[in-house]
Specification:
Rossmann fold, 4Fe-4S, 421 residues, Nase/OxRdtase_comp1, six-stranded parallel sheet, four-stranded parallel sheet, 3 domains, photosynthesis, oxidoreductase activity, acting on iron-sulfur proteins as donors, metal-binding
């Protein structure tokens, strides 16, 4: 068990540190960076995963693809990708191509960095992104993409203090963050990533970095080290309390005194029906997205009982404020899933927030489940995301109530329960 004064003790166990392939991050990043192409060097399994998990339709021409590794490629020193890149440039006209590693070529010891450098041209750089599921949690692959973009962020001139929001969000949330900052008198320098590669923000010693996703510790630390930028250390902007603290702390870094307690109270009032449904409910979060700490904090503030909040990785410095807010909550890093299964079977929590891989077996036991991956794809940030965030937890309870009476023991025997009253 690890703990520091003022922080929630972290119980560290011995299970795997990830639950989904890092290639999943392509699903939101290719849509965010609209002049990009994501090329994955992988196997038929990688292609199957992307085509199914990301709902790819062949006629939609999405800006990502697989350079397939066949058995005959295993004896080659390096993959031959020149023709593939020519086709990508002709079909999609990207400003940047991200070359993502997967498990197999990493085991083959492919020199991805050298390969990316050799394939780059002055007009279309090819950037290496480590995304192997052997090493990274799937959301951390976004961190790798953002790190690859750092050399292309201009150096900000001294004396121009502004904020750069770090983390991929859709355009409506980005517009909301920008307008909220400007309403407080905070100058916005941009976002990392921006919607286009050729509009990356300038970052320098007078830049304040405001991370808005809890899985981006490495890129923020690197920017602070290399560009001497300041980093906002606050709660993440999820839920009324987290959003208030986030904006008040950010304003303080610009010498602005902001009191948003009335705004917070109004936001809580807006989701009062959802909070009433969550009040007293036992919620168990298994490790998956690395968003578990702020989600658990929101649930706790909403009146739910967080039985356990587990996460694949916890960075005590980056997550310090969230850990402070979770005092009294059981927090586990790299949880032993077998132990979790036994406790869930015994205690039967009211809601389980878990991965796509484990959701259906829990549902088969009659438990109410929320897919944790939905929180990475939905607009849940800041004031405009409060209602969506609350509904994500309430919706599975509403869905269960609309179903006929459910007998898990009958279902598990392979016989569908009767719909007759």
């Amino acid at each position: 068990m690890m703990s520091e004064p003022g922080l929630t003790p972290i119980i560290k166990e011995d299970n795997v540190t990830h639950s989904f392939c890092g290639l999943a991050s392509v699903g939101w990043l290719y849509q965010k960076i609209k002049d990009s192409f994501f090329l994955i060097l992988g196997t038929h399994t990688c292609a199957h995963f992307l085509q199914n998990a990301l709902g790819m339709m062949i006629f939609a021409k999405p800006r990502f693809g697989i350079a397939l590794i066949e058995e005959c490629d295993l004896s080659r020193p390096d993959p031959q990708l020149e023709k593939v890149l020519e086709e990508i440039k002709a079909d999609h006209h990207p400003s940047v191509i991200f070359l993502l590693s997967s498990c197999t070529p990493e085991v083959m010891k492919v020199d991805f960095k050298g390969l990316a450098t050799s394939l780059s041209t002055p007009d279309v750089p090819v950037l290496f992104v480590p995304a192997s599921g052997l090493v990274y949690n799937f959301t951390q692959a976004e961190d790798s993409v953002l790190q690859a973009m750092i050399p292309f962020c201009p150096e900000a001139p001294a004396g121009e203090k502004n904020v750069v929001f770090v983390g991929s969000v859709n355009d409506s949330i980005a517009d909301d963050l920008r307008s909220e900052a400007e309403a407080l008198g905070i100058k916005v320098g941009g976002f990392l990533p921006e919607s286009r590669f050729d509009r990356l923000p300038a970052i320098g010693p007078d830049t304040v970095l405001a991370p808005i996703q809890p899985y981006l510790a490495r890129v923020v630390s690197r920017l602070a080290r290399e560009r001497k930028a300041s980093v906002l250390k606050s709660l993440f902007p999820f839920g009324p309390t987290g959003t208030r603290v986030f904006w008040e702390d950010l304003a303080s870094m610009f010498g602005i005194e902001a009191d948003l307690r009335e705004r917070e109270a109004a936001a809580w009032q807006r989701i009062a029906p959802q909070c009433e449904r969550l009040k007293g409910k036992k919620v168990f979060l298994t490790a998956d997205t690395m968003m578990e700490l702020p989600l658990a904090r929101f649930l706790k503030n909403a009146g739910a009982e967080v039985v356990e909040c587990s996460s694949a990785y916890i960075n005590k410095k980056f997550h310090a404020r969230e850990l402070e807010a979770l005092q009294g909550t059981r927090v586990v890093e790299q949880p032993n899933f077998h132990r979790q299964l036994q406790e869930i079977k015994r205690d039967r929590p009211d809601i389980i927030v878990t991965s796509l891989m484990t959701a259906n077996p829990f549902v088969g036991q009659g438990l109410i489940v929320k897919w944790s991956m939905e929180f990475t794809l939905m607009p849940i940030h800041s004031w405009s995301g409060v209602f969506t965030l609350a509904n994500l937890f309430v919706s599975p309870m509403d869905r269960r109530e609309k179903l006929p009476e459910f007998d898990a023991s009958v279902w598990l025997k392979g016989v569908m329960p009767s719909t007759e009253k």
